[in-house]
Specification:
Order of helices and strands: EHEEEHHHEHEHEEH
Distance between the termini: 30 Å
Strand content: 15-25%
Low-confidence stretches: 32-38
Mean pLDDT: 81
Radius of gyration: 17 Å
Largest sheet: 6 strands, mixed
Number of helices: 7
Shape: globular
């Protein structure tokens, strides 16, 4: 996929999207960067050195830490100065509407709030690439729609390559530059959202006509 692409793996539950993403976490040949001359070969680097941020369906938060500590953890691990850590954590919290939760324990949060904390811990790093596995699945419909806009705007600001797994057609159509349409472990179509919508290559799981406005 092109550098800086917002790439969606779209398909029904059980079709192989997460399995594909899991394979991408251990790339045998991967390059990330803003341009061909500046790309970094991460093929033989350890996962912690690849500058890829992950957001999982099951949050993977540290239960003994509060929200602020969870979000700031990757920055502190990199030795980022304290004031910069504070600023970046507060920026991420503002984007995700969780500023009021920063000093709360994550163990007492709702699933939707914990998902937002997991997103915050990823975006605060400003990595070369994001890999997001159904990151909005635990949110209510109204906030999910809002976060689609926020995630796309964040992507445009950071210029980071994003691989986004979802079964939600509206999420994919509204955010993606490129959609990989999967079904039963098979990649059935690859292209920009409008092309997939206008000229579907398969009838097994087409983009729904309900998306028409």
């Amino acid at each position: 996929m092109p550098d800086g692409d917002f790439f969606c793996l779209l398909g029904p539950s059980g079709c192989g999207k997460t399995t594909t993403l899991a394979h991408d976490r251990r790339p045998r040949a991967a390059h990330f960067g803003a341009d061909p001359a500046g790309r970094e070969d991460v093929t033989f680097k350890q996962a912690s050195q690849r500058d890829i941020a992950f957001v999982f369906q099951l949050f993977a938060l540290y239960p003994h830490m509060n929200v602020r500590a969870n979000i700031s953890y990757p920055l502190k691990s990199q030795g980022i100065p304290r004031e910069e850590v504070r600023q970046r954590v507060e920026e991420a919290a503002r984007i995700l509407r969780i500023t009021h939760l920063l000093d709360r324990s994550v163990s007492g949060l709702s699933s939707g709030d914990r998902q937002r904390v997991a997103l915050g811990r990823a975006i605060v790093r400003k990595p070369l690439a994001f890999m997001l596995d159904e990151p909005l699945g635990a949110l209510d419909a109204e906030f999910r729609e809002l976060m689609c806009g926020e995630l796309r705007a964040l992507h445009d600001r950071l210029k980071a390559t994003t691989v986004y797994v979802t079964h939600d057609q509206l999420e994919a159509m509204s955010m993606a530059d490129t959609i990989a349409l999967m079904n039963d472990g098979v990649l059935e179509q690859l292209g920009p959202p409008q092309e997939i919508y206008d000229r579907p290559a398969t009838c097994s799981w087409p983009i729904s006509s309900a998306l028409r406005r």
